[in-house]
Each structure stands twice: as structure tokens, then as C-alpha cells.
Protein 1
Amino acid sequence: MAGLAERQTRFLADLIAIRSYTGQEGPAVERTLAELRAVGCDEVWRDSAGNALGRVGHGPRLLLYDAHLDTNEVADESEWPHPPLQPTVENGVMFGLGASDCKGGVAAIVYAAALLKALKLEGEFSVVVMGATLEEDAEGFALRSLVERDGLRPEAVLLAEATNLSLRRGQRGRCELRVRTTGRAAHASQPHLGESALLKMLPVIQALEAMNPGLPAHPVFGPSTQVVSLIEGPHTPNSVPSWCEVAVDRRMAPGESLASVLGGVQAVVGPLGASARVPDQPVRTHTGLALDGPSFFPGWFLEDGHPLLASGLAAGQALWGRAPEVGVWRFSTDGTYSAGAAGIPTLGLGPQEEQYVHAANDQVDLEKVRQAALFYALFPLFYVS
């Protein structure tokens, strides 16, 4: 399998060399489609949201492997030890933008498909490999489109985000709320003629912060939190502001819903004269498709004994002679849709390390990329049995 490992490394280098900021993933999608064809997938296509997809196998039990192609944007290239779009290998480690989030994962799942074909590993399963789009800015939106618009609903989802070859069984959710107060505008030289929405906001902010000790808690993730993260008003410094709005960043335990979060906030700020809403997030794919949706990304958690988790432990045990460690993500993933919204059992394993995600020393260990591909190739055999 040395030849496959070399091809996998070249593919990963090609992906890193392609700039693929969110909404600009087109060239990276095309490169992934080409590799899916080259490794012999039974079917290769681009869905309506512009995700790259390849299928291996003909069995009825459908598994989806998800890793995203978009990356965060580089703020200052001078901070990087190597140019971000110049893949560089040192001591078996590849450096470059997106290596750890999440192009190392894309290389792992694409070459899991290659291994399934090369080793003729077949059974009652089909595996769809997804080079996903939009995850950095709108996690889950592209996956939602695949399931709800294009009608491909898997039995289970595996996410190749950063885990350092351990398993991830869940994540906290996140939500953006907007809370607004209104007043009456007047010239700042005659403030008595107006009513300041900004001053009305002061007790609202205090009330929002005071909610934290009473928010729901989870035995693994701990308490939910919310932070007032932004304040806005009219851009007229010589006027009494007629409106004021704050953004609230809410991090949620699994099980919290849009209705429960919004209702709880409204119950606190309503008596103070304020209103609350969850805004729609504008999202446009690189193909031009609008996927706008609420800025609400629910959390999720896979319980002990679930067949998906048990299969991951068994596959790791067979491959490495030990069961992988099990934990949870602190950041958000496409699992916010698959598990949090759609109720599809979801599990994570990736070769990347969280410490390098969104960092100037972005990197991935190439041996771990190979090991992750082996895990993903082996996993269906344990899951369907």
C-alpha cells in the first residue's frame, strides 16, 4: 500500500496549495472530485450545494464520511513558518493552511475509499465520502442541503475533524441572539426631548450576564454559557440613539432547542422593554445557491453503548491493539446538523491535532493521516456486523 500512501500525500499537498476560503471552495471541490474518480469510486458527483461526493459499495446500509474543504482566512502571512499555500514536509509532518482543519481529514476519508476499493472490502454497506463546503462559517448548512434538498440521508455520519486519532462523541452547541431596545431620537444638544435606547440597554446587559448561573448544565460538557459580545446603534454621534442592539453568544448543552433558548432570554429581557430574536445567517455556496438559515447550531452527544461508538472502539482496537480514547469537541462541527438537528448518529475521528487548528503553525502528521484512512476503511466491517 506504499503507492497509495504516496498518492495520498500528493493529494493533500495539492489541496493545501488551493486557497479555499468559505464560499470559494470551487477549485478544491474539483480537485477532490478528480481524486475520487482516480481512486475508483463507484459514483462521483457534485451536489446542488457544491460538495464533492464519491460512493464506494452497493450495500443498503449507508455511511457518510464528512471532512470540509473550506478554511479560515489568513490574517498575517508573516506569522507563518512557511507560506500558508505552500505545502511543506518536515520530519513526516505537512505544514500549510487547512492541514489540520480539515484537509488532512479529507485526504484520510478519500483514501479510505481507495483502500476499500483496492482491498475489495465489501459488505452490506455503502460509504459516501464528502468533501464538504461552508463549514467554517456555517457548519452543517451544506450537509443539511445534501440531506434535505438532495435526499441523501445516511444511517450514520463519521466526521474527520481534529481528534489526534481519538474518538469524539459530541460537542456543545452555539447560537447567536440579538437583543434590541428602542427609544426616541433627539438632537444631542436637547437630550431631554429624546429617550436613549442605549441607556435602556444597560440593565438588559446586566440581566443577560446574570442568567449564566441558572443556565442548563450537562454532566460531560458542564454548564451552558452566554456572553454579550457586541453592541450596536445608530452611527450618529450627535443624536440620542433611538435603538440599541447587542449580540449574545450562547454556548449550549445538548438538548437545548431554539425555542427553549430564545424563550428563556425573552422571558428575562421582555419585562425590561427589550426584544430578542435569533437572526438568519446569510449563506451562499460557491455555486451561487442561497442556504440562509437561523444562526442556531445545536449540540449533541452519543451515549455509552451506542453501536456507532462501540464500532469505533472495536475498529481502533483491531487496528492499533488498543481502544482509542473517547472525548468531546469544544468547537463546533457539521455534526451540529447531522446529530444535533437531524438526529443521525454521529462520531468523530481525525488525524489532525486540535492545537494546530486555526494556528500559524497549521500542520498534520502524515503517518496519522494514513492511520486514519485505515480506520475509516476498516470501520464499516465492524459497524455492519
Protein 2
Amino acid sequence: MNQTDKQYIEEFKTYLSVEKNFSSHTLTAYCSDIVSFILWLDNISCTEVTFEKLREYLHFIQRFDYKKTTIARKTASVRTFYKFLFREKYIDTNPAISLSAPKRPKPLPKFLTPDEVEQILNNVRIDTPSGFRNRVILELLWATGMRISELSNLNYGDINFDENEIRVFGKGAKERIVLMSERAKNYLIQYINTARNLIPKNGYTAGELSEDSPLFINNTGYRLQNKTIRQVINETVEKIELPKKVTPHVFRHSFATKLIENGADLRVVQELLGHAGISNTQIYTHVSMKHMKDVYETAHPHGKN
């Protein structure tokens, strides 16, 4: 680092302390960020930097395992530094005026293969009324792609058995229709006709079934809570020692991934999932592509060449 750059940093430090009234902790962090930035520039003067060079630097620091807050602070440090240089007329134009941290790519959602889903379903104990209810719940999660909150909020009147349809109220109370498989429907009919009334214990009752009755109930006859469904999944996955973390949302991801892999239209999947925008659904095409590449590399004789 040359003497001129050191002078800029010292003046910048004074600016942050006196005019911006930064705390000592923030002041130290900002100055450290700028020192690192200037060292990265190597032989390039900080007063000759372009917007493209700043973007290159931000992409560089993305390689490290920084928290999002750290990336945001480093970006703010650079913006503030160049605002200072421009104000002091050390540069004619401010290259950082529209600088923002590049968005990190969203991690691909975890999903289960159909065989793994069947393994989970077949290991849910159904020899008790509540156990049978749990099997029905997981069958519906896999068959419909519903969120866990949407499923627990279902009422008997939301089910259209003739058309294999379920009315769901998603985020923002937005109504949509999801479809259930014949297998899931048959399990659901058995649950309603037999197991549901046998679930309540210690003198509690399920009550007379009406359009507004909660579809899934607990031992006291009230609506089943999300945590019970999570507990069922955790216990089953632990029992079969499946080497994956499985949550109710993983069933949703698995549902969407399977549809995409089987050629379903992206707009149809968007509607079934209740996504407000198509961008939220498009990530499943990346999951599918990754799966296809994995299969290719494993199965094709030249896949890994």
C-alpha cells in the first residue's frame, strides 16, 4: 500500500469518527474493510477504480464463507469510502454510486426420491387410530404438495371426493385447489369413516362431523397442530435411519420435483404450489437438471469424462 492510500484511509477514518459519528467498533470494521480492498487492488490506485472493478471485488469476496451481514457491511464500506473520496474531490466521478452486493444463489431445495418417500410412508405405524391419521397426513403431503400449515387448517368441507380436489387457503388467505391421488383419497376416506372418531382419549369426542369440522384432530378432539406432524416425520425418519434431514417442506419439494421431472408444465406446478410468481417455481427446474446430471454421470460410461 502506497503512502497516498494510507493518507486516504486516515482521512476516511477521521470522516467516519467526526462527521458520521460511527462507533469505535463500526469505524474499525469499515477501515479494515477498506484496507483489505486496497490490498486486493494491488498496483491499481483506488482513485482509478471503475464500477466494473468494484463488482469484480464483490464477486471475489463472495467466494469466502461470510455471513450476508458481513457482505452487506463490506459493500457499505466501499460505497462510503468512494462517497468520501468524491466529496473531497480526490476523484471526478463516484464509481460506487450504484453499487450493491451481488445476490447469492439460493441453495437448491432438498428433496426425496419416490423410493425414499415410500420407505417413510411404509414405516409409519398404522395400528392405532392416531397412527393411521399420521399415515394419511404424509400421504396427502406427498400427493398434493401442500404446506404443513395448509394441511392442518383443512376442514371437512374443503374436500371434494368426487373430483379428487382439496380447497386450500395458502399465504395471505389466497384460495387454490390442489389434487389428490386415488391412493391418498382412499386413505383419507378410511380415516374419516373409522379412525377419526377413535382418536380422542379420556372422555373427549371428535364431535359431529360438519363442513367446518377440522379434518385432522388430536387426542382432545381439537385441530391437530403442526408440531405433531413434524414429530411424526422425525420419529419415522430416525427409525429407518434415512441419511437425510426430512421436514414437511421436503415433502413439498419432492412433490414439485417429481412433477417437473415427469414433464409437468411450470405454470401448472406454480398453481398447485400456490406460488405468487413463477420465479419461485423455476428453482425446481434446477433441481431436476442436477438430478439428471447426477444420473447421467453415474449411468453413462463417459459421464465423468
